[in-house]
Amino acid sequence: xxxxxxxxxxxxxxxxxxxxxxxxxxxxxxxxxxxxxxxxxxxxxxxxxxxxxxxxxxxxxxxxxxxxxxxxxxxxxxxxxxxxxxxxxxxxxxxxxxxxxxxxxxxxxxxxxxxxxxxxxxxxxxxxxxxxxxxxxxxxxxxxxxxxxxxxxxxxxxxxxxxxxxxxxxxxxxxxxxxxxxxxxxxxxxxxxxxxxxxxxxxxxx
Length: 206
What we know:
The protein starts with a strand and ends with a helix. The radius of gyration is 27 Å and the shape is elongated. By secondary structure, the chain is of the alpha/beta class. Strands 2-1-3-6-4-5 form a 6-stranded mixed sheet. It has helices at 20-23, 29-43, 102-118, 135-145, 160-166, 182-186, 195-204; strands spanning 2-6, 12-17, 122-125, 150-153, 172-175, 190-194.
C-alpha cells in the first residue's frame, strides 16, 4: 500500500510504499488482545501483601482450656476469625507475568500496525526534528496535522529538541523504534511513523 509522506509543517514530501506483510494484514483482535494482556500483566507491580497468621505479633498460647467453658474451642488468637488475626489466603508479593511466544508478539505488532493503517489512523512524516525545543511551536504543527492523541515513533534515537517539546503535551507519546509496542499503539488515536521508523520496521520483519 502507498501512503503520502508529510513534513511537520504539513507540506507534501512524496510517498512511501508500505509492505502488505506488515501493514496490510486483516487485523485479528484475539492475537492483539493476547499481547495487550501479556504487556499489562508483565508491568503489574505485584507488591500487594497481607499478613498471615504466622506473621502476627501475638502469643500462640491456647486462649483458655478446651472443655468446660461453654464456649467454642479455640487455640491461638492469631487465627483469621479474630480481630487483629492473620488473613487467610491473602495476597502475597509475586510476579503476574506469564510467557507469550516471540512469534505471537511479533504477529500482534503486525496486526496492530495493520489495524491503524486500515482505519486511517496511520501517518508518515519525513522526520521528527525541531531546531528549538518549543512546546508552543510543536502544538501548532500538531494542530495543522490534526494530531490530538498520537504515538510518534522515530528511528533508533529521538531528536532532543523534539522530545523536550513533546513531553509536556497531553495524549502525545514519543518512542524510539526499539520501544514500539502493541498497547501504546492502541491507546492513542493516531500512529505517526517517521520515514526512518518505517525503514526500521521493514528491516525488522524482513
